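Box 3.1 A note on notation
Throughout this textbook, protein chains are presented in two layers. The first layer is the amino acid sequence; the second is a token string describing backbone geometry. Keep the layers aligned when reading.
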Amino acid sequence: MRAQLTVRLPEDLDREVTKYASRLRLKRSDIVRMALERFLKEPAVQEEGVPYRKVSSLIGSVSSKVPDLGSAHREHLMKRIKKHA
């Protein structure tokens, strides 16, 4: 079964879609469908959906030299605040 999607377009984009549909002798919905298919096949779009991939090269590259920073971050933060107060 095909799903239906309603999209509101700004006037300038609507004119562009209509122009291309007319030039290619296709329906406006065909132009939008083709554009979506092309957009979703872009490698940059596929990778953008996985935040881990963006930062994976950074993980483990910086050390705070504080072994329990993750579990005792509040205590370390309070010590620093008191030190500089």
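The mean pLDDT is 86. The helical segments are 11-24, 28-41, 43-48, 51-55, 73-84.
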